């Protein structure tokens, strides 16, 4: 589950960076939030609350 969030978050960042017109055309997708979640689970693994992660999904 954590690894999937990392992959999705990194993909979201790549889309924002490499295809900004696509990201802008889809404002309903929380691009930045997905990347921030990726950072949280990647860099704060032992501090991650699994309950919060499940609520996010």
From TrEMBL:
What GO cellular-component annotations does this UniProt entry give? toxin-antitoxin complex
What's an example of a GO molecular-function annotation for this chain?
Answer: hydrolase activity
Pfam families, alphabetically?
HepT-like
Please verify whether the record's keywords include Disulfide bond. Answer: no
Q: Which InterPro entries match?
A: HepT-like (IPR008201), HepT_RNase_toxin (IPR051813)
Q: What is this protein called?
A: DUF86 domain-containing protein
Can the keyword Nucleotide-binding be found in this entry's annotation?
yes
What keywords is this UniProt entry annotated with? Hydrolase, Nuclease, Nucleotide-binding, Phosphoprotein, Toxin-antitoxin system
This protein's species is Paraburkholderia solisilvae
């Amino acid at each position: 589950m954590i690894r999937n969030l990392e992959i999705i978050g990194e993909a979201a960042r790549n889309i924002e960076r490499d295809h900004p017109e696509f990201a802008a055309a889809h404002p309903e997708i929380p691009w930045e939030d997905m990347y921030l979640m990726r950072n949280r689970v990647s860099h704060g693994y032992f501090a991650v609350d699994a309950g919060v992660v499940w609520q996010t999904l």
